[in-house]
Amino acid sequence: MRAQINQHNYRYHVLDEPVVSDAEYDALLRRLQALEQQYPALISSDSPTQRVGSAPLQQFGQVRHDVPMLSLDNAFDDEELLAFDRRLKERIGSDSAIEYACEPKLDGIAVSLLYENGSLIRGATRGDGSTGEDITHNVRTIDSVPLTLLGSGYPEVLEVRGEIYMPRAGFASLNERARESGDKVFVNPRNAAAGSLRQLDSRITAQRPLQMCCYSVGRVDRGQLPERHSAILDCLNEWGLRINAESAIVTSIEGCLEYYRQLAVRRDELPYDIDGIVFKVNAIALQQTLGFVSRAPRWAIARKFPAQEQSTRLLDVEFQVGRTGAITPVARLEPVFVGGVTVSNATLHNRDEIERLGLEIGDEVLVRRAGDVIPQVVSVNLERRAAGSRAITFPERCPVCDSALVQAEGEAVIRCGGGLVCAAQQKEAIKHYASRRALDIEGLGDKLVEQLVDAGLVSSVADLYQLSVADLSELERMGPRSAANLVTAIAASRETSLARFVYALGIREVGEATALSLAQHFGSWEALQGATEERLLQVPDVGPVVADYLRQFFDTVENLTVVKALREAGVSWPDLVQTPAADQPLAGETWVVTGTLETMTRDQAKALLQGYGAKVAASVSAKTSCLVAGPGAGSKLTKAEKLGVTVIDETALQTLLERDFKD
Fold this sequence. Notes:
Blueprint: H1 2-14, H2 22-38, E1 62-64, E2 73-75, H3 78-92, E3 100-106, E4 109-116, E5 119-125, E6 131-133, H4 136-139, E7 157-165, H5 168-181, H6 189-197, H7 202-206, E8 211-221, H8 229-238, E9 248-250, H9 253-266, E10 274-281, H10 284-290, E11 292-293, E12 296-297, E13 300-304, E14 309-321, E15 327-338, E16 341-347, H11 351-357, E17 360-361, E18 364-368, E19 376-380, E20 390-391, E21 405-406, E22 415-416, H12 423-434, H13 446-454, H14 469-473, H15 480-492, H16 498-504, H17 512-522, H18 525-529, H19 533-536, H20 544-554, H21 557-568, E23 590-594, H22 602-611, E24 615-617, E25 626-629, H23 635-643, E26 646-648, H24 650-660
Parallel strand pairs: 2-13, 23-24, 23-25, 25-26
Antiparallel strand pairs: 1-6, 3-9, 3-10, 4-5, 4-7, 7-8, 10-13, 11-12, 14-15, 14-18, 15-16, 17-20, 18-19, 21-22
Helix pairs in contact: 12-13, 16-17
């Protein structure tokens, strides 16, 4: 049973290819716990039930590395990387191209894992390279660290080296929980990973979303490893250890340059932070010939990315008004180059965040830009506070319409109470209404919305349907043909669905999924508008907060006036036949749509499937009921076939929906 659970851990946490549901896995683990409770003598330290100890340590022990954990030299531009390649060729006396292994340089904590006879006996930090801290009790809590190696053929003594890091999604969730509980938030994922590993109580570490990714080996006794670095990594992966899926082999230094360029473009899409690329000579024999200098190997180098954190000075704070009236403080910064771009503005989130930071105008601040996240101020250097710094004063009235500001109980956000009379909210409401997932008015972009409101041609979404070609032709960069196309697109948006219309209204906390649930539950606008809070709470995805926002919207005369004007302008949709969720033909199933569809968009296919009760997911897993694959389907199709998931094409989907579910 332990072996079975270890195999499931490997498939889930290392390969990302689970073959059992979460419920099945939990049942297996509970059964093992029950057996061990019944037969305590059979409990072993490498059991999946023994990942977390109970007694906190008093302090960390010291670990002496048998093979030093060296650092790497860095290259900061292409010329330095080319010079690295030239040095290697001069040293080996050959102009032949060198094969390199390329790996993303994860922004985490370097660690060493020591296995004896396949069992994990020690985990340690890099420390100064010669001596680190014993963190065995903490690394045992990380699911991607196997307590026992899988398979066979591994050396009797094997030291594995890698990086422990925190994925971006886990970091965001951890900080969100910290804010909600009033605890200290972490500056970045690397600090969060380091802080999690230095917990004396492993139960705290176990609650942190840490991952381990291997990149090399250290001590190896009584066993043989392959003669190429890439093949060694493949062995580690077969033995149950995670390696980076972005790793690649190139046949020359030009391949390294191209790999760097490609990953630099995709860097923000990765689910974790990286601060560069590591290039290693792939042949182990050549590594041994090249040797080491001081504290670094000659045969490896890190090509660094631009830093994603930099210090600068806060010049001022301005306040913006969002679509829902939320007042957001925005830091105006002394321009600084961060993460490959020049940053002069950064979000400060809300008043609570300003107070948490202890921020004042004139302070030296640390700015972070990672992923596609808006740059943000993450800390203040209080030791270098300027004598002339001044407190940040939050406005008492809306900076756009001068309406009073309100703050709901239990909310950190302060909002403008001006609603439809606030120009900032009007613009954002119109942009949202015209967006692709709402009424999808092609050609009505953000800049044009700004022009329409500023020119006084539009003051609410209903005014869009009164626009003429003559009105639009007078706007800057809007000729008669463009104006006619936009009028046609606006007219086409009159025919929509109830779900899209509800979403397009921009009601707080009502996203696409909730709007669809509301439409399916009530079937018509009249039934939805007249629903009591108690009836709203019967809808899936609707809790007390969302129900309250819905009733606030329906109880506001100005909102209903706009809806009435929209319907009088011809905006319409077919009422739905209400079907109890449990009676829908695809209720309880999870579908995925991939590739290019020919007779409908993927969004339309998603809406159709949701209309029949299916949940539509973004990725394939063992829980997927069916994959709809159009031309160009790639990795999702491959994964579905590997997992045995049912795959159909667009024609089969249409047949299913039109024939089997037509009633």
